Amino acid sequence: MSRKKKYASVIIPAVSLFLLLFLFLLSGLISLGQQLSSVSPILAWLYGLIVLACLGAGIIWPIVSVWRRPIFSMYMLRYRDGRARFYWCRKLTDNLKKNTELTNEETAQLENFLKQGNQADDLLIDFFTEKFSPVIDSEIKRAAKTAFVTTAISQTAFYDMFSMLSVNLHLIRTIVESCGYRPSGAALLGLYVRILKATFLAGGLEEMDLEELLPLVTGNAAMKLPGLVFASAAQGTVNAFMTIRVGILTKKYLFSADGPIEMPQARKDSYKEAIDFLKKCELHKDVITMAKKTAQGAKEAAAASVKKVFKSTKTSPLT
């Protein structure tokens, strides 16, 4: 496949999905803006400012921040010579010092790597992967929990879609800024296409049958949850799974040490890896917590209602 056809196969779906998402979000924003305008023009203006701020911070800034980073992947270090190799060895070393907790011995070890000539790349790649994998996994876990909690609680398609879009874009930005480099343009566009697909999925989860997914991650305890809580947790779990896949694929692009990754195989492997990662996220604790809060709220509401009825009966005159 030629370079132009390769880019076209990614750009066309990305642009199409983006336009559909833009039109969907725009219609929702206009509808809510009109309702606020009927109440007060000031509210409509404030709403517009809030929307612009959210779009800037949640969507535009993460994309711009990522695209400003240099293109690189671990395997490319082996093909650099002279100043180019030393530049990237030094850059990776500086990123390790800045974004990971190193002992004095490890810092000295890093500096020693730079003096090893042709062996520096292999030594640095192994060290970088070992130290940065926990950092990236922690960011993926945080983003997955954010996706789970926000979409499980909101129960609003419009908010779910915006939340998923923002969470996934910020996840890529965080991973890229931690490593100090980004995937190629085609790879990055491919990730954005997956984010857009996950965003549309988040808006239509109410129509899906999710009864088999949550027990797969949380065990039989999930079946004891109240119906509404179970459905909300299942929707949040799907969105967390999609976020984890985006994080895993981003990590694969950046940490590939033996050459460019084979995307069909990487996508296939990412499903199992995302399920395993999802189980380790301990989302079931969030599910149980949410269930307890819901049950406690219902219990308190019922007690207050009974108390109110009792008081009204006691104070009312007998007829």
Overview of the structural elements:
- The chain is mainly α.
- Helix content is 80%, strand content 0%.
- It has eleven helices and no strands.
- It has helices spanning 3-39, 41-67, 82-99, 104-113, 120-154, 157-179, 185-203, 213-218, 227-255, 263-280, 283-315.
- The longest helix has 37 residues, at 3-39.
- Mean pLDDT is 76; it is low at 205-209.
Portion of residues in beta strands equals: under 5%
Category from helices, strands and their pairing: mainly alpha
N-to-C span = 89 Å
**Nearest-angstrom radius of gyration?**
25 Å
The SSE string, one letter per element, is: HHHHHHHHHHH
Number of strands: 0
The shape is: elongated
Helix content: over 70%
| Average predicted confidence as pLDDT | 76
Summarize, please.
With 319 residues, this protein is mainly alpha-helical.
Q: How would the blueprint of this fold be written?
A:
Blueprint: H1 3-39, H2 41-67, H3 82-99, H4 104-113, H5 120-154, H6 157-179, H7 185-203, H8 213-218, H9 227-255, H10 263-280, H11 283-315
Helix pairs in contact: 1-2, 1-7, 2-6, 3-5, 5-6, 5-9, 6-7, 6-9, 7-9, 9-10, 9-11
Question: Which terms would index this structure?
Answer:
80% helix, elongated, 0% strand, mainly alpha, 319 residues, single chain
